[in-house]
């Protein structure tokens, strides 16, 4: 399964992350039992804050946290094999895993969409329509590329894969190199790689995924989700209170993100190993950190699933039935 922004970890940040694998997990002794939460090192979902502040511990759990560098595939496999109980994950990939038979439930959301199209500063691009016929670097198999392509097709009526010249990249740093060498006019990428390009003055935001969503769907309210929380069905059945407590811990983390930004960025720097100036820009540019699973959010998620099915990323008939989605895919605390 090809994945989006976490491929960034194949770079130096990912190499540096390898040391985490050799460290013992952080534990906290509490009263509700043990829960094993694993998350991606560059998840950009405030899960790092849950970990470093032991927010599950504060809600009564003996929490074991583990940081997983690299792409989401291995993390999904850890959940499927019951080596961990809960994870953070791309919402689109969570749906894909569900229709492929992984026994999981979405229990809450973590962050809104993080993708963007960044144009080379001197490429003469000022609006989305200017991309027609231009060279764009993208990792074609990623969920971010698929989402942005679908939203552009729905909102602007042209296909990025057919009406532009796609230059296939192997990783986000590869896209940055292509842009820097002026081999392409724009890149389709995600935070924090997009922020780093803009921060260095090499590119400008042409559009963000959230803006494409608003244009394509006509939804002025609500936030489409990039990252959500998944809990293994077996663990959830035995410990149903984890859904509410994980959402409560995420809310605590979001409160720190917005009300104690210095502490939030300190934690993110410690976990991701990214430069502090890049983290500062990415923190400011993040569309929205999220928590819980409110009715309005569920309706937005169902709309996302419909678009993913409409444009071929998802295949199962379940995504045509909102009642089944609410009953089988989500777990409301």
β-strand number? 10
Unreliable segments (pLDDT under 50, ≥5 consecutive)? 1-24
Order of strands across the biggest sheet?
Answer: 2-1-3-10-4
Task: Give the proportion of residues in helices.
Answer: 40-55%
Q: Could you give me the name of the CATH homologous superfamily of the largest domain?
A: Periplasmic binding protein-like II
Write down the CATH topology of the largest domain. D-Maltodextrin-Binding Protein, domain 2
- Global mean pLDDT: 89
**Bulk shape:** globular
- Total of domains: 2
* Major sheet description: 5 strands, mixed
Query: What is the CA–CA distance across the termini?
Result: 30 Å
Structural class: alpha/beta
Order of SSEs: HEHHEHEHEEEHHEHEHEHEHHHHHH
Could you tell me the radius of gyration in angstroms?
19 Å
CATH class of the largest domain: Alpha Beta
Q: Oligomerization state of this entry?
A: single chain
Tell me the strand percentage band. Answer: 15-25%
Tally of alpha and pi helices: 16
- Quickly give the CATH architecture of the largest domain: 3-Layer(aba) Sandwich
């Amino acid at each position: 399964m090809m994945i989006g922004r976490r491929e960034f970890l194949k770079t130096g940040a990912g190499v540096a992350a390898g040391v985490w694998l050799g460290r013992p997990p952080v534990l906290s002794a509490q009263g509700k039992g043990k829960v094993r939460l694993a998350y991606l090192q560059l998840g950009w979902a405030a899960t790092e804050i849950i970990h470093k502040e032991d927010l599950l511990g504060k809600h009564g759990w003996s929490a074991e946290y583990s940081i997983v560098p690299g792409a989401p595939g291995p993390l999904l496999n850890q959940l499927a094999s019951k080596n961990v109980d809960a994870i953070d994950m791309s919402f689109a990939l969570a749906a894909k895993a569900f229709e492929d038979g992984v026994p999981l439930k979405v229990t809450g959301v973590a962050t809104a969409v993080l993708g963007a199209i960044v144009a080379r500063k001197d490429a003469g691009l000022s609006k989305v329509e200017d991309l027609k016929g231009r060279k764009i670097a993208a990792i074609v198999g990623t969920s971010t590329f698929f989402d942005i392509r679908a939203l552009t097709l729905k909102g602007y009526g042209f296909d990025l894969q057919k009406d532009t010249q796609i230059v296939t990249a192997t990783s986000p740093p590869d896209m940055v190199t292509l842009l820097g060498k002026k081999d392409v006019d724009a890149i389709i990428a995600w935070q924090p790689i997009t922020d780093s390009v803009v921060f260095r003055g090499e590119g400008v935001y042409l559009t963000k995924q959230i803006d494409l969503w608003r244009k394509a769907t006509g939804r002025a309210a609500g936030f489409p989700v990039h990252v959500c929380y998944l809990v293994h069905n077996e663990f959830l059945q035995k410990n149903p209170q984890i859904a509410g407590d994980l959402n409560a811990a995420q809310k605590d983390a979001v409160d720190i993100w917005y009300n104690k930004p210095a502490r939030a960025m300190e934690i993110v720097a410690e976990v991701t190993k990214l430069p502090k100036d890049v983290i500062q820009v990415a923190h400011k540019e993040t569309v929205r950190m999220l928590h819980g699973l409110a009715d309005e959010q569920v309706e937005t998620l169902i709309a996302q699933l419909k678009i993913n099915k409409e444009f071929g990323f998802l295949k199962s008939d379940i995504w045509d039935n909102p009642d089944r989605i609410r009953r089988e895919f989500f777990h409301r605390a």
